[in-house]
Amino acid sequence: MAASAAGGMGVAGVLLWGWVLLGCVWCPGLLEADASRSSSHGHGHSRSSARAAAAYPLDDLHGLGREFDGIGAVSGGGATSRLLVNYPEPYRSQILDFLFMPNFGASLHMLKVEIGGDGQSTDGTEPSHMHYENDENYFRGYEWWLMKEAKKRNPNIKLIGLPWAFPGWIGRGENWPYDYPDVTVYYIVSWIWGAKQYHDLDIDYIGIWNERSFNSKYIKNIKTSVRCLIGLLVEYRPHVSFCLYWLNWKFLHKLADFSQPTFPPVPNNWAHYPGTKTVDAALLTKKKLWSSEDYSTFNDEVGAGCWARVMNQNYVNGNMSATIAWNLVSSYYEKLPFGRNGLMTAQEPWSGHYKVEPPIWITAHTTQFTQPGWTYLQADGHLKKGGSYVALTDGLGNLTIIIETMTHNHSECIRPRLLPFSVSSQIATFYLKGSFHNVKALQVWYSKLDFGSANSTLFQPLSPIEVFEGTFTLNLDVDEVYTLTTLKTGQKHMYREPPPSQPFPSNYKDDFNIRNPAFSEAPNFADQTGVFEYFVNTSDPGDHIYTLRQVVVQRPITWASDADQTISIIGDFNWVNMTITCDIYIERPHDGGVFIAGRVDNGGIYVRRTKGIFFWVFADGTYRVTGDLARKVVLMKGLAGVRDRTWHTLTLTLKGSSASGWLNGYPLWENVPAFKPSNGWAAIGTRSFEFAQFDNFHVEAS
In total, how many domains does the chain have? Predict the structure, then answer.
């Protein structure tokens, strides 16, 4: 609890009244500290108590630490914001406000997005701006929209682009983007150019290849090309900052390759999931150090504890001046890999329900009271009995201190393994020196994570703490976060409760008849291999002018283990009994094929092992029923008479342990045993990377 200062009832007394209002259960500690001060000093200020207070000086007299670069989050890597775009208003805007609006919620300083590459990148695929070599479209997907929404709320937010996968044409048949570096450079620079030309977005940083190796010639060429691009964009903006980064400290030994005068300098070294530690080789570069992907943890109280700890300790232990969370918002089906690993949850556009999770408010402790360009004070940063603190200044007299006391079991991130440590309650006295000695009071924001009832206190303002002759004392318990600041701009905004959670509609239809869609993908379909886009079928004179088309015709340069078939899932993972109907159009002659499926049990990075009940038809006139996407488990096969370039209607019914299929309204096969999987999503897809169309999708499930 906060304590110190003089006068009347004293700050501790005021804080006690605030805690009564908040239902605080730890007030005896505050009373003990207050009684100790009153007995030793008549004016209520104390530098000692029943427990010895540890001393922590904060001083700018002898210089400052590293420049602070911000706190951010990742959309992508992949398809993590897929369902967000389908939310109805006002809920979609409310979610965006909680993420990006300054002094509102998370108030993020940076947004990192995936440069879509048509390949699986964790929870789905994101479409490329260049599916094919002569194809350019800077309106595909939703990352352009998301960056604009972020900029609309915070014009100063920094934008970062990073590829996970690349379209197959870049590799010329090889699963590698660097054999033809000039081609890869053209592809990436086109994305930067398209962001500015079509969306007026300035990209601040660009990455090489997520968590994969890099190529010297490629980096040299892209640096030169971006400089040329900046020249072309000079009429819009005279400066575009640019950064290349390494995603694992193990690559740092290769920095020697780029020490030659002919190679442009690399300003930043960035790592993923560094465990708050930095290797000596990184420090010796004397460059900025970032944790450019971190967190990746279920967004309950433990996730909040993880996030509180790494945001502070990435600097305290590792001198990292920026931390970026994967991921921004859990807007993908929860049963995909790493469900609910976002700072907040928004995975039900059909109901409008979303949840502002604890990590949002833990983020606010730092982001609402700092800005990129502030500077860390030189301080040890470790609390005597566990936990950490950082202090930052804007150089104009403002000071922000963030303290966390997260215990081991309540702050474990998903990776890396967290070695044992202990944290206990403690008294901490801070001494403000240098230009901060005359600070008279600090605003106080407080969180206490509750791991029993999950009734946490999150980002609550307390009464200001008075600073007496540059000194104040805090009584710290475990699993707390404090922000103490000279700024008075912090706010905890709340909207009315969103609609209650509802399962995916059990009767769902989509005829794809949208003339000018706002987004390239149909609502609620989550592509797991391949890309399914709205399509205008000008050659069709009948009822199938507006369709959904699978458009990736060459295996991409993969980041994950994409399937050999394309697949897009939809619905409720808990569905057991269902009837799926869809019109299908095979475009590839001879060996083309499509499927509809139910009880689909997998996706994301595990898509190759997907099981379910799959009803396939092929251009050679045959059909097949399989228990898996890979078509290794054959349940039934035969002749169907299906032809390519002709519309057909497929129907799949799953009821209990039995499956049946219809073609054009007539039974084709019946009562095939279907015991496993017992539940799962509905899906559509193709035999290979090939063009195919779908229309009039309908699922009834229970």
Answer: 2
